[in-house]
Records
---
Amino acid sequence: MSRRLLMLCMSLLSLGGLVNCSKSPKEGAQQTPAPTAKTEAAVKATALTITQEQQASWIRNFNPLLVPGTARWPTRAGIYEPLMIYNTVKGELVPWLAVKHEWSADNKKLTLTLRPGVKWSDGQPFTAKDVAFTFELLKKHKALDFPAVWAFLESVQAKDDATVEFTLSRPFVPGMLYVVHQPIVPEHKWKDVADPVMYKNETPVATGPFTEVKVFQNQVFELGRNPHYWQQGKPAVESLRFPAYPGNDQANLALLTGELDWAGSFVPDIERVFVNKDKDNNHYWFPLVGNTTTLYVNTTKKPFDDVRVRKAISMAIDREQIVKVAMYGYTRPSDATGLSDTHDKWRNPEAVAAGDWTRLDIAKANALLDEAGFKKGEDGVRVGPDKKPLRFDVNCVTGWSDWVRAAQIITQNLKQIGIDASLKTYDFSPYFERVQKGEYDMSMGWTSDEPTPYYVYRDLMSSETLRPTGELAARNWNRFSNKEADALLKAFEGTNDPEEQKKIAHQLQMIFVQNAPVIPLFPGPSWGEYSTRRFTNFPNKDNPYSKLTPNSPPENLFVLVEVKPK
Amino acid sequence: MPGDPASAMFARFAGQLQPEAIDSLRVAFGFTDEPLHQQYFTYVAHLFQGDLGLSIAYFPSKVTDVIATGLGWTLLLSGIAVIISFALGTALGVVATWKRGGWLDSVLPPVLIFLGAFPYFWLAMVLLYTLGFVLGAFPARHAYSDTIAPALSAEFILSVMQHMVLPVSAIVIASLGGWMLSMRSTMVGVLAEDYITMANAKGLSQKRIMFHYAARNALLPNITGFGMALGFVLSGSLLTEIVFSYPGQGYLLIQAVRNQDYPLMQGIFLTITLAVLGANLLVDILYVWLDPRTRAR
């Protein structure tokens, strides 16, 4: 819905040509200060204006332990802080509230050393007790354990003020990421909270750079600096402002009128629509570090249980066209490993070379289907040995226009090899329920967003994530498992040697390429736009110190402490 | 509706949620397997205590809190829009019929019907683009300037009025035609009545005949429509609110439907129902004042 509105809005904009968007001269003649974009911006030059959440009016909730998306965005990206932050662009773990981590020899104990001198925003010292307390809260209230750390943790102990020891029930090195990304809350404030699941934490006490709620109205709120922030001289920005926009289109309009300093929304044809408006100040950066947009096939159904069919489908898809038409050229076709640029250093060139099935090759696709026993019928649709014609639905989400266009191209492509595919769009909830329950033929989808390929492949090939059809599966919507992959994933869990991990990741890619459990389409760009009219030092391709997009807390902390007023 | 709130929750967290967490959330939300009639009595009992439950989409806020963030603005926006379009449309209808065959009578109805055929949000977008974006004559979003805090000051009220111009215009333009046409059609009937001829014969002033004799009688069906229109305008303002980022209730309903947030939906429907009932009460009072026949002895 909102995306469709956006498209309408944008086409209206383009119809009108690139009309100079400066305000009318009438503004100056008005006696009262006109509440238009320009005057507001001039008044509030000290506040970095950001949009990330789509809300019509704000609800005051700063509880960092609730499900992401429930509390206001800065809760996990500015107010509360994690122990360490994974930098997706650089591919490294950056120390934050903890300065050092150490694994025991058997990889069953993780010891973290905390940063000295960190204070909560009320001046109390931050200690290991706070960390242990936070994890105990997750243990006590399962509704708070969204990262599912207690699936592999056994206990968390504060050894002294600066040392925390995590004992694991089994060696599980990849789990560390979830441990160190957990926002930490102060024990002295939270021990009296009766029910942290229902707690809105309206006046947060935290360690982050912005902790003071200066303004909270239903259409805008503003956060001020933490007087006790541990990074000397940072943040340089005085405050953050969050106007409420119910959708992408309203946010994009605000971006065009220069009200916003930082946004992370999809903008069609961005060079013309956004950059050309103000070439000196309007910038964007869409690195391909998001998850991979993927065509899921239900491998429990015939004929998708046949790897030849999966590969044939993939070979018939014209990814170049999808990238050009559906994605405005913001991305590139995916290779057969399905990894995005986040995992560049893990990529196995041999697996990429072996994965010929992501290259467009209609002849070979036809040959593969012939070989698998699907003969073309009279109407051009192939018929299987069971006499059933290959007629399928491709599921997609209503209004996700880039996906819908991509799925349309796919259905046309598949007709060329005798598969009669048609597009079916659903609202997000029913779409996602079908995908999770495995009640679909083919479906648009995405891969996991985690930093290591371990999670990507565990989600797509492990029997651990496999659920029977009809049961909700959090991952592994394609319902595929592979014994070899299971063993490799197990091995990955038990080692923290980077060389060893890389070797295993290479083997996992080989298995993925051989089995084609899903059909990767293109790596997802991580959307990010900024204006240098009032603030500078945003990350970009010349200065890639972090992702630009505000859509992935806690990495946004990097940006919030580095951005400077002009 | 396919799906249930729990799986919608699951969906919203894109796989970050563990199955155990969902069970705890179900308990937290108050999902129970009690028999339906029992659940109903609990609901009614809570209703009388002003407790509409917890919202799922805005967990853990109360439904009443969530609705309170926008209800006032929605009532203000659609209230003013309905009153303006009703008053203006009716007046236009009266004047047009009085000068039957004049330019007003021949040009306006088709134009207004044409405009009325557009969806609210499309008109809102055109206004937003031309007057808000290109000309910059009016603010393009929110209910008042972001830089001032709500207070009973002249500055604030002026700001609210300025911010209301575009969304109100969008609703008024789209709904004006209906009022004008219905007024016109009853006026035409009334003008043929004998008492109008008699009033003319008595030599009363044209203004007096037009408003006191004709319009007052012709107004009755329109007044009935007024109460019902409020309900429609509430739902029509929903899309207008989204286009102008107005902090009203409109977006809440969409969010509630998307997240299968039944408590919030119930709450919003309840407030819409109450608003329509309130408007009907108002209409009944007006009716008694306008039509002597309805006054009981």
---
Amino acid sequence: MRPRTLVAIAVTVVVGYLALVPMGYLLWTTFTDAEGFSLGGFSRAYGSDRIGSLVGNSLWFAFGSALLSLAVGTALAYFNVRTDVPFKALFFAASIIPLIIPGILYTIAWIFLASPSIGLLNSLLEPIFGEGTINVFTIWGMIWVEGLHLSPIAFLFMVAAFRSTDPSLEESSLMSGATRVQTFRRVTLPLVRPALLSAALIMLVRSLESFEVPALLGLQNGIYVFTSRIYEVLRTFPTDFAAAGALAVGLLAIAALGIWLSNRFSRGHGGGTITGKGFRPRPIDLGRWKPVVGLGILLYFFVTVLAPLLVLLYTALLPYYRPPSIEAFQSMSFDNFVAVFNLPTVPTALRNSLLLGAGSATIVMALMAIAAWVVVRSGIPGRRVLDHIAFSPLVIPGLVLGVAIAFVYLRSPLPIYGTLFILLIAYCTRYLPYGMRYAVSGMQTIGAELEESALVSGAGWWATFRRVLLPLIAPALLAGWVYIFVVSFRELSSSILLYTPGNEVLSISIWELYANARFGELSALGVLMVLILAVLVGVAYKIGASVGLKSD
Amino acid sequence: MYAEIGELTGSERRDRLVELAAEEGNALSIYTSLNADIADIVVPEFEEEFGIDVDLYRADSETILQRILQESSAQFAGADVVETNATELAVIANEGLTGDYQGEQRDKVNEDFQYEGWTPTRFNIFAPAWNTNAVAGDLVPTTWEDLADPKYDGILSLEVGDYDWYMTLYGYFQDQGMSDADIDAMFAAMVDGAKIAKGHSGQVELLSAGEFGVVAASYTYLTEKARATGAPVDDQPFVEPVVARANGGGVMRASEHPATAMLFMDWYLEDGQQVLLDNGLTPSVMPDGSDPLAGLEVQPVDVQQLLDEGAEWSDRYAEVVRGGEQLPEN
């Protein structure tokens, strides 16, 4: 057997093992009860006569959020990579900080900003527009908050995609008389279609599963979504895993359809824009639009990053939240920050989270670099199945994933249960889908001819992979790495089931503070996390820039 | 072991348990849903007093239940003591996973809260809480029925998962002779114009911030904690009957440290109760041995009913809170 086949098989086995363990458990609990095969879970899950309106609300919310984040993320990425827009340093913060702020804090910060009764923005607007101009407790408010919270995912995807497409095509289009808008629509967008579809798919599934935003914003005015149902189902006694599984299977079907469509539309379009011809991305001169776009960027930065972050900082300095007033400012202190540093588990938790974040991001992206090659390039029959398998953990509820992993390793002779390793396995499983989408979208932009010429010139498969493909997809791999590293800090539902004393992670400290209604300390911890992770991600980018494709 | 220790009382019992705990290696594993800030005070006090090393696993009650069920199905003895909510403990006890812990302190617990296989250690009490800036004078609720008054429209908040509170209050009004139709109408009027929230702690934060004026069923210890930071919230005098749900502890039958586990339960139900009291919780036995609920009209959450009919009440409550549904204001 050739080495490439061996590597492909090995990676497929590892990915298959990671993804199929929880999947198998999920399907087993979904389709069986005490008597054997059963579809009872489905009737309990979908039996509510409200399921129609739940799904309707969910789809509206999910499509809205995905569209908003896609539009915002793509526009930002385009301006950042392709134009001479000002304030480029802000992009970095804008692309990472909403990811770092835990969903619960981001949503609460928005309540403090845009609630009709206590929102700060509303009190600013009141003299002009009257009371309660903005209402965050509507489906539009939900789309706004979720869309902005997700936009960094789209941004990370699209930056990687724009970096690895050939701008000479756009230049030819402009030279042939097309306008900038025409060029963007007819040339640029089709070129990055694989990344666009990947990002859309992930964001769609993510918003269908989103919990914090619908729970905190939607419920208040009776807007119920799919996850409200999962929550209800998981809350019953004994926990109805069959019904929760049935809902997850529904999501899985949607996701599988999405992958199929995404692969179908990626083929023949956009694929292979990186060819043997050298290219050097050159920034487009925005001309007189420069100040307008610059202003837009500042506004975006203020709205998605600065305002929520300032609210967090403000909350962190107060003993309890109250709207700004002289008394509020007089009561400010650093007590909450001091309290966070004094929490006994925080130092251990921070260390463990860093280890797990870096470990799972590295393992997943290394595996996925090869898996993406198998799926996109190898020509091995049935290779697309790997794509679907790697995507499946995205739809498995975190608690079910945790239970499945516990089930296996409680019975395994390997001493993994009760160690940090079991969390590493859980994280690797949970973030496989993201890694796969990032790596596949990177791989799809690379023409087959580069690989062929390397092989023809006598390079072995491994040398070709390492010296040709890897550097070319490095921007996508780095984007995936950063994403996994950052969001792994927030993983709670399987961490909390699987951790053992001494192996705490930061998300558990966050949950402790939330459960305890200690919002001041929670905000303080949020602010500290933003600082720590922003620095670390900055370092990762610096290192990444020195090994990957040099674009500017 | 349970039989031998069950015979003993007082210092004789404690001395014997200390001796046995030493034989077991002075190590203990506790799974608890007690909040960290309190667990981090309770457990070190126990460790210090007896020189026992405690491994403390903290999670929400549902996760604890899942972990215990998974571990026991694989014959893995992870926990020696489990300390969590009534419903989860009842499931664990019904599975026969807890040992037969008996003792004098256990007998002092209010008789409405005596359960087989586990022992209440603290109470969660539901009572309305209000923002004192927004709600004063006539607006302060004095009965549960008050909350149905239209004057609370737009400022009252209900929690989406409080079906145990709903079930208990429903039973209380039935006992009062109210017809089901009247009770339904009362809850519908409460929900009408109410803001539905998820999570009691978030609810209290938003109450402090003035987003809500009244929270229908707040945990009294959360209200107390907010008030201690200076937030303008109050729940005194309690609206009665207060709805009380027990949290408790059980010693695991498969435990490799059964004596240490019993020692912990003995200590927790005696000296540990003072620590809970000092930290704003409601203990199950007052340090002087009296009943902490004495003097209050209490409606206990019926744990067995919750197990038998929980799914049904959860669905019913879900329907009730949806009554507050308004079309999104687009």
